[in-house]
Design brief:
- The protein has eight helices and seven strands.
- It is an alpha/beta fold.
- The protein has one domain: NAD(P)-binding Rossmann-like Domain (Rossmann fold, 3-Layer(aba) Sandwich).
- Helix 4 links the parallel strand 4 and strand 5.
- The longest helix is centred in the middle third of the chain and has 29 residues.
- The relative contact order is 0.15.
């Protein structure tokens, strides 16, 4: 285990840690000496992540917890004695144009992607203040600033995550707690894997990213781990875009004779 980041013997709570980005974050924090509290609504996925962390020489405790269940979150927060790092990584995406969305569909997505993040932040704030070096990291998306059409309230929810993180940074900074968000671009996860199995979608997506490939969950986990550490002690209220340069390609989609066309 490396201690360059100064995370040894600290404790983290990671939501959505049963798979994808959340799971990669739990593994990477564990590899840096952090005891991870693994939260996910799927008990099998919780057990699998905890087992894998132990097999890798780390330490973890699993909790079956749905971030839309306020009482459940409160119970978990009460049962965890300390928390130095909170990572909000649970996520949901569903297709649908805003004009066709029902209020129920709108609320269902916001409950996971935004309200759940808020409740986790609120309930674990006392732990993070007590830590003396508390850090929150919230997974947002480049969709927070680049609307993702036909994805219901997804972009709205991620925009909310970014500004919520900034407000938490302002309010909790004087109490010794930092709050940052990470906005991934295209990431190949179990939630999006079905897209990559259609025709040449995988190749086309790789080609659309300036660095030549879609991100892996570990690419995001590395950034989160840094932000959780004392190496990032003067970074708060930031939104770190991690998209391999994808969001810089907009102007290059416009035909401009004489400019490389």
């Amino acid at each position: 285990m490396s201690n360059w980041l100064g995370l040894s013997n600290r404790t983290a709570v990671v939501t959505g840690a049963g798979g994808g980005i959340g799971k990669a974050i739990a593994h990477e924090l564990s590899a840096n000496g952090v005891h991870c509290n693994v939260l996910d609504r799927d008990s099998d996925l919780v057990d699998a992540t905890v087992s894998e962390i132990f097999e890798s020489g780390g330490n973890a405790t699993g909790y079956v917890c749905d971030v839309t269940d306020e009482a459940g979150i409160t119970k978990v927060a009460a049962s965890i004695s300390s928390c130095d790092v909170l990572v909000n990584a649970a996520g949901l995406v569903r297709p649908g144009a805003l004009a066709d969305l029902t209020t129920g569909e709108w609320n269902d997505l916001l409950k996971v992607n935004l309200t759940g993040y808020f409740i986790m932040a609120r309930e674990f704030t006392p732990h993070l203040i007590s830590s003396g070096h508390g850090a929150m990291v919230h997974i947002a998306s480049i969709s927070s600033t680049n609307p993702q059409g036909s994805s219901g309230a997804y972009s709205v929810s991620k925009a909310g995550v970014v500004i919520m993180s900034k407000q938490l940074a302002y309010e909790l900074g004087p109490k010794g707690v930092r709050s940052n968000s990470v906005s991934p671009g295209l990431v190949r996860t179990p939630m999006t894997e079905a897209y990559y199995q259609v025709g040449d979608v995988a190749q086309r997506r790789d080609a659309a990213v300036p660095v030549g490939r879609v991100a892996r969950p570990i690419d995001i986990a590395d950034i989160v781990t840094f932000l959780a550490s004392d190496r990032a002690r003067y970074i708060t209220g930031a939104d770190i875009v991690a998209d391999g340069g994808f969001s810089q390609t907009l102007m290059s989609t416009v035909p401009r004779p004489g400019f490389g066309d």
